Amino acid sequence: MTQETGGFAALDLNPNIVAAVLATGYEEPSAIQHQSIPIILAGHDMIGQAQTGTGKTAAFALPILNKIDVSKREPQALILAPTRELALQVATAFETYAKQMPGVNVVAVYGGAPMGPQLRAIRNGAQIVVATPGRLCDHLRRDEKVLSTVQYLVLDEADEMLKLGFMDDLEVIFDAIPATRQTVLFSATLPSSIRSIAERHLREPKHVKIQTKTQTVTAIEQAHLMVHADQKIPAVLRLLEVEEFDALIAFVRTKQATLDLAAALEAKGYKAAALNGDIAQNQRERVIESLKDGRLDIVVATDVAARGLDVPRITHVFNVDMPYDPESYVHRIGRTGRAGREGRALLLVTPRERRMLQVIERVTGQKVAEARLPGPQAVLDARIKKLTKSLAPLVAESEASHGELFDRLTADLGCSARALASALLRKATNGQALDLASVEREQPLVPTTGPRERTGERTERSDRGERTERSGDRERRAPMPLAEGRVRCRTALGARDGIAAKNLLGAILNEGGLARDAIGRIQVRDSFSLVELPEDGLERLLTKLKDTRVAGKQLKLRRYRED
Ligand code: AMP
Question: What is the atom index within ligand 1 of the atom nearest the CA of 302?
């Protein structure tokens, strides 16, 4: 075991849980995990003030897994979450951490899915129930004893649950669980409504809060970009096209992510390497030496592996995955701007992590401005600038060495100087897109999310039992101008259905029999997607695609008319 992995091992957790966590690629506990796990293991009630991105899910999931009795096939832990998405996410996290604990069963209970199978899964011995309050109350109305064996209760994102009107449901649920239970409440904020719940339903709770001292950051230009989680690698590749960097460090959370991003960068020709806790110390030192002397330009690292890294060449820090807390953000970006030089720090933020960005801004006392992914024109300009820069030192001296050869080639090929120079450029640039239309064709594959675009989570309103789409139809943004002869089509499949632009592109290419360049920009939003298609023959194409399925769901592409 490397020194860093001792972090989880030292927490007194069951070795099977530690093994599963390490297999997930976590190297050491985050601050909230460090503080919460011992308290929960010791049986105290707890109030944790933490938002998404701090690692709060594992902070309660690991000790709860440690506590349940696998041999008993009845609900022992109940986790309440405000939305279906979060409930599913938490249930998946439990399953991941319980991978090496045979016999653990987790069930997610949320609205919009049939009740029967959920109830059966509970009765069939799920020890861990992750539920949204509205639906759980529906179950309680059918069977008031369903929670009578629960010993551990977690309220996740308690402030969000109250905002969504779940107060009354929470009271019903508290009453349905034995008073001897242990209760843990996580909330990003602690308004009086939450404090009052805690006073009534928690026993001498311990408070855990990630201390956020004000930090100063100077000489580093900071910006953030909103992206969907599955679009981070293409977004990084696009940003690198225009950022003028000397050396760069990209921070991610897991070992696997260091390997994935480093591989993607190497495939694009960057001199990049991964740095994580699995890499032997002497090899790590070699990577850092290479970054120092220019044999490498990019290192993709976890926080642990980058500890103590001091390389003055670093001009850029990319926070590809969100840091766990503002201190760690400040620490990361301090890798650049060394020795009085200027540095630039970019932070990728997924819709769910927006709150963490606000915390970072508050703690650093600085606004982290929003940047947009560079568009095709900016990418093209940057590529031409790089080409110009690489040719500049050659033009002065090449005529003497290669001038005669040039004359001979134009004569032998019977072509103009411009034609020969163009052929040489084509060869030298290796098929890289260097005109606007070709660059544009590369662009649609990175949908980003705008500042006002919400996560599109489906939520349940409990008070009147009605369900609403919180933001699905608020996702509109100003439409992009359409190219001549193209129309926009819409499908109700989006990121929340697990769709990425490449899936849509593949389906339309394969089943519609179109050429790649007939398909324009593809924008994947959370609850829908837009695809630009040729107007000519559109009806025929849509008929062809009538039964097409993407990610197991019907595509149902329709012409989209903007008003
Ligand atoms: P959460 O704040 O619980 O939503 O977690 C945010 C993300 O951090 C999730 O993708 C987790 O898988 C990841 N994560 C949580 N704890 C750790 C850890 N100790 N090391 C690396 N990644 C973690």
Answer: 21
40 Cβ partners below 8 Å, 6+ apart?
A: 46, 59, 60, 63, 64, 67, 182, 184
Residue 537 confidence class, pLDDT cut points 50, 70, 90: confident
Round the CA-based radius of gyration of the chain to a whole number and report it: 27
The predicted model scores a pTM of 0.60
Is residue 486 within a helix (H) or strand (E), and if so which, with residue range?
Answer: strand 486-491
Most confident of 18-22, 112-116, 476-480: 18-22
The CATH code of the domain at 220-373 is 3.40.50.300
7 lines ligand 1 (CB under 6 A): no
56 ligand 1 Cβ < 6 A:
yes
| CA 329 to ligand 1 centroid distance, Å | 15
Q: Which tokens in the block code for residue 296? A: 């490498």
Which residue spans of the chain are classified as CATH 3.40.50.300? 6-209, 220-373
Confirm or reject: Cβ of 30 under 6 Å from ligand 1: yes
Residues of the chain with CATH 3.30.70.330: 469-559
| Encoded tokens for 371 | 């940047």
Question: For residues 513 and 544, is the Cβ–Cβ distance under 8 A?
Answer: yes
Q: What is the pLDDT of residues 230-260, one digit of tens each?
A: 899 999 999 999 999 999 999 999 999 999 9
Cβ-based neighbours of 111, under 8 Å, separated by 6 or more: 84, 132, 134, 135, 138, 460, 467
Give the model confidence (pLDDT) of 441-476 as tens digits.
Answer: 876 545 455 443 333 333 333 333 333 333 333 333
| Residue 57 Cβ < 6 Å to ligand 1 | yes
Q: Look up the CATH number of domain 6-209.
A: 3.40.50.300
pLDDT, mean of residues 53-65: 94
Ligand 1 centre from 251 Cα, in Å? Answer: 14
Give every CB contact of residue 313 below 8 A, 6+ residues apart in sequence: 246, 247, 291, 292, 294
145 contacts: CB under 8 Å, gap ≥ 6: none
Residue 58 CB–ligand 1 contact under 6 Å = yes
Q: Residue 328: CB within 6 Å of ligand 1?
A: no
Q: Which residue is closest in CA terms to ligand 1's atom 1? A: 55
Distance 130 CA to ligand 1 centre (A): 18
Query: Which of 4, 22, 26, 94 for mutating ligand 1's site (highest number of atoms within 8 Å of CB)?
Result: 26
Helix or strand or coil: residue 234? helix
Fold of 469-559: Alpha-Beta Plaits (3.30.70)
Of 140, 192, 186, 134, residue with least CA distance to 160:
186
Decide whether any atom of ligand 1 lies within 6 Å of the 258 Cβ: no
Atom of ligand 1 nearest to the CA of 254: 21
